[in-house]
Predict the 3D structure of the following.
Amino acid sequence: MRIEPPFGYSEIVPLQKDRKVRLPAAGALPDFCRTANAVPISYTEFTAACRDYPIAFVSADSGRTFNPVAVLGVASGENLFWRDGEWDGSAYLPVYLRRYPFCMSRIRLNSVEQADRMICVEKAFVSEDGERMFDDSGAPLPRWQPIEKLLREYEADIEQAREMCAILADYSLLQPVTLQVSLKSGPMSFGGMHRVEEKRLEFLNAAQHRNLIRKGIMGRIYAHLLSLENFARLVARKEALASATGSGRA
């Protein structure tokens, strides 16, 4: 059996009912936030995320599958919403970060992906100094119940996002995009992303249009398209932070 850790996690292990887990302090976020220039978002997060971040689609398998992400920076290893160890309190905080150190993991048995998902935890957080999530009989304690609810609802929401991306790809709506940025320090480009090509929507047939509307995907498409305006805000944020840092040195 092989368990692949998701993006940002180091080593995950199945959550065992007789083990204690060291829970992060309130408001604490995983270290990988510092250098994450994008984080995954789920189906229902589009409405909240589109207000603060550009939403793009990325592929880790050469275009066979896609996932939606909230873009956090315009350079590799750059998170413009992370400052002095904290997230910008005025911006939406994606569930992907709020669920840490837990996750729902896919399991491979003899190189075959299994249908079931397993609740896992970052191994470094399994500690005798932590809290129990289950009692001696294996029943969930009150501390665990909201965590499990968040994990299961989020996993179902991620599956909806995967289905949406599969449909967008099948309808040939996703196109690669490279961001060209003009900074005071000089021009730069930022690629590896895909967007919905709005003009292609008019070439879909009636059944495809109905499917996008029936599944609620059309609303997500326009949330995504509107969110692309936030790339300009990202650039402005980058310049403002650079100026503040320069002023601080002076």
